[in-house]
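Weekly structure sync, notes
Attendees: PL (lead), two postdocs, one rotation student
Agenda item 3: pending single-chain targets
PL asked that the sequence for the first pending target be pasted directly into the notes so everyone works from the same version. It is reproduced below exactly as submitted, 191 residues in total.
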Amino acid sequence: MNEASLRRVLVEIFRLAYVRRLVDLFGGNASARLSDDEVLITPTSMPKILIKPQSIVKMRLDGTVVSGGKPSSEWRMHVSIYRVRDDVKFILHTHPPNILALTQAGYRIDLSLSEATSYIGEVAEVPYLKPGSAELADAVGRALSRGNVTAVILRNHGLVTVGSTPYEALNRAEVLEDLAYITLMTKLLGR
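Predicted structure, written out during the meeting:
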């Protein structure tokens, strides 16, 4: 995809994540690899439904903003992932309520409930670390450095999913959120 197409698809994916209730109005972020050294990332402090293709920030993997406004406060995490995984083309960071509730209660998502493993791969987890921090970026980068990991649960914070397409990253977030809901309901019903 060219840059204009990537900008449009980032806007579309993020709106779908908002509609699906994976992010709130100001929460979450998404990015796309533009080249070996450049990425496109959603801006900070902008209502997700108002993001337009021209709102997307272009930056280098060294953190330098090439064009656009201020990148998401989680830009370090995105850059860290792109540095360790050449196969990752898209990253979606969401705050799915069922995943947060499940992990807060001390449970893990039951991946055996469906064909989820064919969509997901391996799910890693990192402890709570301050959002936007270098420590969080390093922890998520390490978790995703294993090539079979496609999702990382950030305890008391959210979820990061990666993919070779934006739809793959979004689908992984949706599937995991649905499985978290099913797991919660199963625990609630005592099964």
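Discussion points:
- The domain at 3-188 is CATH 3.40.225.10 (L-fuculose-1-phosphate Aldolase).
- The mean pLDDT is 93.
Action: rotation student to compare against the earlier draft before next sync.
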